[in-house]
Amino acid sequence: MIIYWIAAYFIGNVLTAWWVGKWYGIDLRQQRSGNLGARNAGAVIGRAAFVLTFLGDAGKSVLVLWIGFYFNFELWTIAVGGLFVITGHLFPLWLKGRGGKGIASFIGVSLFLTPGLFLIMFIAFALAFPFIKSATLTMLVSYFAFVAAAVFSHSLGYTWPLLAALALIIFKHQQDIKESYKVRFSKM
User: Staple 145 to which of 48, 50, 83, 124, CB 3.0 to 4.6 Å?
Assistant: First the structure.
């Protein structure tokens, strides 16, 4: 089990944006936000880079969960594997902790492990976005919906690692949240 979690962390260290950037001859750490995630890859390189990065980062999360299910680990153990793959993406050892921001990795984990909670999160995002008009701020609403659904469905016994992952993702988005809040609400 501990080997599974360590492996999950190191699988998380495989940052798709870094490889996509290498393919295009661009160091995404030196471009725009400097983030090694799908959003920055898309903004700098284009739609294909966004899609490849998103699928790669979500896919590595699904791979970690699939390995857990293959070995018949308990659900909470697999969820901790999900937390570790996201943590590896956020804080990769080989890049001194400067990874992505974890959204695609979280989507892969939540969609594969908790599709019902993912659907609630997705619906909350879709409903709130037209009013908030900021993906970053709407993300907070959708995460709250995910947490509320986990509490009301009495699934905290195995979803608590995903809630910890959300806390880390929000931590990584602190600056984006502050900037989005200023931009969105300074107009009012």
Answer: 124
Answer yes or no: pTM beyond 0.85. Answer: yes
37: alpha, beta or left? (left if phi > 0; alpha if psi -120 to 50)? beta
At residue 63, the pLDDT reads 98
Q: How many CB atoms lie within 10 A of CB 29?
A: 17
Residue extents of the structural domains in the chain: 2-185
Cβ-based neighbours of 16, under 8 Å, separated by 6 or more: 38, 41, 52, 53, 55, 56, 57, 60
**Tokens standing for residue 154:** 């009495």
Report, as an integer, the average pLDDT of 10-16. 96
What is the secondary structure of the chain as a DSSP string? -HHHHHHHHHHHT--HHHHHHHHHT--GGGSTT---SHHHHHHHT-HHHHHHHHHHHHHHHHHHHHHHHHTT--HHHHHHHHHHHHHHHHS-GGGTT----SHHHHHHHHHHH-HHHHHHHHHHHHHHHHHH--HHHHHHHHHHHHHHHHHHTT-HHHHHHHHHHHHHHHHHTHHHHHHHHHHHHTT-
Tens-digit pLDDT profile for residues 81-95: 999 999 999 999 988
